[in-house]
Amino acid sequence: MTQEDKITEQPSRYDHLEQMPIAELLQHINEEDTLVAEAVQKALPQIEALVEAIEPRMKRGGRLFYVGAGTSGRLGVLDASELPPTFGVPADWVVGIIAGGDEALRCAVEKAEDDAEQGWCDLSAVLLRRSSDSSNDSVIGIAASGTTPYVIGAVSEARKHGLLTGCITSNPHSPLADAVDYPVETIVGPEFVTGSSRMKSGTAQKMVLNMISTTLMIRMGRVEGNRMVKMQLTNAKLVDRGTRMIQETLGIPYDEAERLLLQTGSVDRVLSEP
Question: Virtual CA dihedral for 192, 195, 196, 201, nearest 10 degrees?
């Protein structure tokens, strides 16, 4: 794939940005952002196919891994890190891996994304932490360009080792999409600042990751009705939310609901007791 083939590297539809007043800059950024939801909507069949393939594997004990570099890697780590407190799942159910390791979450790590072998090295090291059986595990590579060597190397080797593979990219017919079983292509068009894929491409990635992980958590029984009944009680806001869930469901005073919640440790346990 040449530079000219990459939509993510094509020139912005706007020019002379440094001469625009603040209001105009904000307006145009917002105009471009409205295109993201449309691009994700067009990719819904691809997203559905990927989730449908992952679900039975997770129900058999499989894990889900996100692999990315730069913004893409950070978004994967972000999504994975939010699932344990939100849905009360173990930290190893969904794991984010970023080129350059944890240091890359805050600072750019030079050339980390260019190492095609390191992606699989990092992924396989995490795979082996729990057990040697990865037959039900799934890997989603995240790269706006669809050409990041670190990500392509990880998913290519994962596929050879029998893991289910998917990807999220903003370029059609990319090497990354060719390397996986279930590609998701969100074609958002050129970025407002040419090549700055942290903008529309990153927003699309965040939306798709939210859709994938939330749908999987619902299908895995971590939501009842529309409530996160298995959330961890890690702060006062979540304790209050859980207390109100119990109060409304059982029709009891707030203080009694809070006592039951703190005694059992979760909304789910309170509501499931006879």
Answer: 80
Question: What integer is the mean pLDDT of 145-160?
Answer: 97
Instruction: Look at residue 2 in the predicted model and tell me its pLDDT.
Output: 59
Q: How far is CA 216 from CA 52, 113, 175, 201, 228, in A?
A: 9, 28, 27, 22, 13
Residue 132: the pLDDT is 63
Q: What pLDDT digit, counting tens, does each position of 260-270 carry?
A: 999 998 898 98
CA distances from 34 to 21, 200, 266 (A): 20, 9, 38
DSSP run (H or E) holding 169: strand 164-169
Q: Just list the catalytic residues.
A: 82, 113
Is residue 129 pLDDT above 80, yes or no? Answer: no
In the predicted structure, residue 61 carries a pLDDT above the cut 90: yes
Q: For residue 73, give the amino acid letter.
A: G
Instruction: Determine the Cα–Cα distance for residues 189 and 196; give it in Å rounded to an integer.
Output: 11
Pairing of strands 182-185, 138-142: unpaired
Q: How far apart are CA 112 and CA 93, in angstroms?
A: 25
CA dist., res. 75 & res. 66, Å (int) = 9
